[in-house]
Structure formats: structure tokens, C-alpha cells
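2 proteins. here.
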Amino acid sequence: MLGGRSVVRRSAVPEEPLPRRQQNSNQPQKFSWEHSHIHTVHSQAKFTEISYALRMTEKDDALGDLRDADVLKALCWAWDSAVQHALDSYEPTTGHHQGWVGYTAWTILVDRLDRVFSCERFSVNPNDTFEVGEDLVAEGLLSGEYEAMPRLIPGLVVRDDLNGSPGWRYKEWRFLLQSFGGKDVDSIPWPQARPTKKAVATQPYPDEMVLPGFEQLMAIDVLADVLKTPVSDLTVVTLVAAWAIDAHTKGSELHLGRPRYNRKGSEAWHWRVELRNGPPDGRQGIDPIPATPPKSPSPQEVQDAEVTLRAMPRKANSQKDEG
């Protein structure tokens, strides 16, 4: 006893551990951080695996549908024609510049897509044969272009603009056009794009259904116009055909993919395939790169030389309004 108060000293002998809870006991289990952490890691790994599978599923589904219906072949044909016409018409001595080439290529690309898909002024009755209106479709094309044009059934692909931005849709897959001015296609700053393309980049994605913080507020804001469309249209997945053309090097690129809202320099695409990269050479409808990397070529095979586009000013390839 110290100062009139009794002091109870704890024994130096460690206490007996509590007995384990019986399997059928109603007592709550003691929280185990180790068990929770392992479970979380396993869950995250499983989620990553599922997310990758979902991404590959959408990519494979989109490319499979568009390839089987010859939509990709038609897109490549339209781009080849646009590039050829724009470069053939380019005359710097008359005052043409890079911006003129970009706008001309975009204008012709829209026209060629309407031709090959039988849209707008090239529309025909879905029950008509390919020969109906062929004079109108062939008018203005270079020698051999009409013969090389893929033949798609009228009405298979429909014109489906989004907020004034030209678009074309097959099944649930719609694609819009976007120039990237010869810069890195994987660094397109979608947050700085026009409202329509910005909204497209914020589309809900299988593994990103919820956006945190600022991105969520931004998505709600920029999707306001898109959500005014009928509910049935919300099932449409909007892709982007990104392109670039250089008047000096004659180089051009065409890509198709699902854009990703890349705030703070993150990835610009959920997935992307390259349809064209190089000067126009008359090839038509080359399949895009496969979803899985191809096997290494044999030493006897000679690969095509890569073409690097020269960096362009920001206003190069400017169009009247891509949305």
C-alpha cells in the first residue's frame, strides 16, 4: 500500500491466450488484417483479370463485327481516296497550306464514307441493287477507285451524327472522325477536345463504370447533351477514327479505337488499332493489327519501312467543325 492506496501489480507471466472460437459458435470472429489484405489482393487481381477480359471482349466484338461486314475495308477505301485526292490537289504555289490539306482530306473522307455506305445524297432503297445510282457514286472518283470500292448492302451502315459531328453506325458501333495533326496518336488530349469528343471519351467503360472525384463531375457535365438522346441510343458505343495527313512528307495515318478521358496525361485510348500508316500506295482494305501480337517474322521476310510524320503546328489539319 502506497499513500493509503493499494496497488495491484500485474504478473510478469503472460496471460493465457483466449481459446479459439468454436466453429459453430455465435461469437464474432476477431478481425484479421492479414486475411483481409490477402483477400483484397486476390479480389483486385481477379478484378484486373475480369477488366482485361472485358476490354478484349469489346475490342474483339467491335473489330469482328466491323471486319465481317466489310466496314473496316470501306473505311480504309474512303481514307485512301481522301488522301490521294487531297495530296493530288495540293498546290503550295497557289496558296495551299497544311491546314488546307487537312480540311480537304476531312471533307473528302466524309463524302467517300457516304458513298460507300449509301448515305445522304448517295442513299438508295435497301431493296435496290448495287447498280442503282452507280453513275452518281462513281462521279468524281479517280480511275479504278469505283472498281475497288467495297460493295456494302444499302442501309447496312447508317448515318448517325452526334451533336452535328458526322458519324456512321453499324449495329451498336458508331464511329466519328477526329484529326490529331500529326502528333502522337496515343497522346491526344481529349479533355481539350470539343464537347462532343470530350463526351465520347467519358463514355462508361466495362472496367470503369464509376469515375472518382473530379472526373465524375466532369463526365456528368460533358455527357449532358449526349443524355438528351433517346434511351435506345444509349446502347450505342461510339468509337473514333483518328487521322492525320502531312502535305510535305505525303505521310498519313488512320486509327480506330475507343477514346479514354486522359486527364493528367493518362492513356488516351481504352483500345486502338492502326488501319493505315504510310504514303498512299493503292492498297485497299488491309486488315488492322490483330488483338494479340503476331508471331515474329522469319529472317527471310522483309518488313515495310515505317513512316514517321513530321510534327505539325496546332492549327494544322484544322476543320470547319468536327464536333
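next one coming up
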Amino acid sequence: MAFSKERERKQYLQVFLKQYTSEFPCIVESRKGKHFAFCAVCGCDISVSHGGKTDVVAHVSSKKHNIIPIFEKVNLSLQAQAPQIHVLRSLLLELLRDIFSRFVNPSWLKRSPELLNLDYHSREAQKGDEDLIIGQETRTVVDKLKPSEQQEFFEAVRHYFVTVCDYMRHKFPLTDPALLNAEVVQLKTLDTMSFRKRCYLSNRESRKWKRSAHWR
């Protein structure tokens, strides 16, 4: 009787379908079996046995999928008890460079010392499909796809990286004057900072003090 129920339960389990990859290029077949899918963005297997496409949608909409693991380093750094505004810009630029290194040719990074001026949208500036950094496990899974599916997958990867970089450039305060000059309080770089930057911060703090004194 128990064996019969188990057999009946398995009959209703959902399996991975090729159409999942067509709708979500980052979702491909898993080596764990037909009841799983592999997310190339997160580098993890997800079960599709209960809801099928619903399980896939739940994953790509989840916080885990939408937060890139490399962002965790910045998040942890900014959670320090001491104020971190003086290193915020350098952390964000380091993060941007890290993402660039995953899909942009090293030669283009070298010739563009100013990251914010890098033309990463250009295919000429981007690595070939075989050199895109997507992780060894993801690469192993993708190598088993059909050529047309691989092409679709890598296009999605490029679009993903470009979208992330676009978001960072337009939403992150990479050119904020306050951050540009806040580096003056970082003791490690104090001796190399320009006098103009020191004056900027000094004057700004002076104005803040005068405003606060006026309202006392």
C-alpha cells in the first residue's frame, strides 16, 4: 500500500521543461535530475517537482536571485560600526571593476583607467562566450546545451551584466562630490589628497556647524 502511494505521488511530480530556458535563459537543465533546474546566475539547483514553472518564477523573483553574491562583500563592509562614508566610493568602484572583469576584455580595462568612461556596451569590448566568467559548474551545464540554446544563454548573460553595470552607474553615488572628497578623512590616503579636497570638507563641515549653531 505504501509503495502504491509513493508511486502515485511520483506520477504527479513536475519535471524540467525546455521552455523554461526559453522564457528564463539563466535557467537550464540540472545534473541532479529531471525534477530540478539549474540557475546560472546563482549557481544553484532548484526543485521544480512541486510547481514546475511556478517554482522557477518563485526563484527568479526571490531576493537570493536578485542579489549578486559579489555585492555581499560591500554589504558586509558597510555594516561596520564605524562610519564608512570615506571608503564607500572606493568600495563601489572596486565592485564595478569586479563585474567588468567578468565580461569585459582585460585590454579594454587597461586602456580605460577611468571606469565610468568604459564603453562596456560595445561587443568589441566584451569577452568571447568561451571567456565569460560564469562559474565552472554553470559552464559544465551550458556545454551540454544545443548551440542555439548556448547562444541564447550567453546573450542573456551579457544583457544581465550590462544591466547591472547600467544600474550601478546611474543609481550609485559614484560621482557624488561628498563621496569624492570624503576620502580625505581616510588616514591611509591623507598624505596623497589634494589641498583642494581638504578645503572642501573643511568648509562643508564649517557650514554644517554654523547652521546647527544658528538653530540652537
